[in-house]
Amino acid sequence: VQLQASGGGLVQAGGSLRLSCVASGLSFDEYAIGWFRQAPGKEREGVSCIRSDDGNTYHVDSVKGRFTISSDDAKKTVNLQMNSLKVEDTGVYYCSATVLATTFWGRGTLVTVSS
Q1: What's residue 47's pLDDT?
Q2: Which end of the chain has fewer CB within 10 Å, C or N?
Q3: What pLDDT band is residue 54 in, cutting at 50, 70 and 90?
């Protein structure tokens, strides 16, 4: 499984960014794709995820109402729409895919929110 994340960049507080993760090599119908982030000096934390089988989504409390995760199953793409960005959203965002209890990671994309 290979994951390619894109869409990071520099944005002012209150702005928006859209991250995309393209997954290749996913040969199973049931999987979950999620976004994690790691801020400087902090541990990696889960931000959002979506399940392929039922479309259920999860968002960490700090991003609820601001971030939306969605998927295009045909394209094996998961998007993370991030609105009303805050300085504390700054970090490297990683895309991950979990299949049969195995998690795969893509390279991160940097999101910088300036005040």
Answers
A1: 97
A2: C
A3: confident
Report the 3 state secondary structure along the chain. CEEEEECCEEEECCCCEEEEEEEECCCCCCCEEEEEEECCCCCCEEEEEEECCCCCEEECHHHCCCEEEEEEHHHCEEEEEECCCCHHHCEEEEEEEEECCEEEECCCEEEEEEC
- C-alpha 40 chain-centroid distance: 17
> What are the CA-CA distances from residue 109 to residues 6, 37, 47, 79, 93 (Å)?
6, 9, 14, 13, 5
Q: Can you tell me the distance from the alpha carbon of 80 to that of 7, in angstroms, rounded to the nearest whole number? A: 9
CA-to-CA distance for 37 and 23, rounded, in angstroms?
A: 18
With bands split at pLDDT 50, 70 and 90, how would you rate the model's confidence at 76?
Answer: confident
